[in-house]
Amino acid sequence: MYQSYPGPGSAQEPEHTQPPNSVRNAVKLMYAGAAVEVLGVVVTLLTTSRLKSAILKAHPTYTASQLHNAEVAQATSLAVGAVIAIGLWLWMAWANGQGRNWARIVSAVLFGINTLDLLISFALVRAAANLIVGIVIWLIGLVAIILIFNKESAPYYGKQTSAE
Fold first, then answer.
1. Quick one: which H or E segment has residue 5?
2. What tens digit of pLDDT does each residue of 35-51 get?
3. Which element (helix H / strand E) includes 27?
4. Which domain range does residue 153 map to?
5. 109 in any annotated domain
């Protein structure tokens, strides 16, 4: 008996289901997280004088050179970290939007790292504006994690895993 090659619309073609609202909202939040990270870079650049004051308050014996080096080091690390975080937010938004199950796990790990970073930042010398941005980013991540791990989202990730 002759069987034709499966064409478009055949049962063997993987299903591309639309993500549920919970995943769509999580992806939107992840894009918002990237946008807030961009805002964080701007805030870092605009608040370097406040950063300088915070460093001087914590280390009053610093020389002008030490103060400048500490300020540049912190501002640079914050900016570089934010650029990396922007890329991670965008990557996770794309991957979760595609229903990649590994993306949920990676998102959770990155959220854990972000939580540790936020806790550490309370102990470090930072401008208040940077702390506020950090808290907002953490809250966005928390809601996104809750959304991608809820009952409404699970079947979407299960379907995508079987189609991969």
1. none
2. 999 998 888 778 777 77
3. helix 21-46
4. 27-43+82-163
5. yes
Neighbours of 75 (CB within 10 A): 19
Provide mean pLDDT across the span 63-80: 86
Give the pLDDT of residue 124. 76
Percent of the chain surpassing pLDDT 90: 51
Please check whether residue 69 lies inside any domain of the structure.
Answer: no
CA 147 to chain centre: 14
What six digits make up the tokens of 156? 């979407």
Q: How many domains does the chain have?
A: 1
Cα–Cα distance for residue pair 47/68, rounded to 1 Å = 14
Residue located via tokens 């806790």 = 119
User: Of all residues in the chain, what percent carry a pLDDT higher than 70?
Assistant: 85
Average pLDDT over residues 96-108: 96
Which tokens sit at 56? Answer: 């001087």
**Is 61 a member of any domain?**
no
- Report helix, strand and coil shares of the chain as percent, to nearest 5: 75, 0, 25
Asked, for residue 15, whether it belongs to a domain, the answer is no
Q: Which residue, among 33, 2, 7, has the nearest Cα to 147 in the 3D structure? A: 33
d(CA 49, CA 44): 10
The pLDDT of residue 14: 42
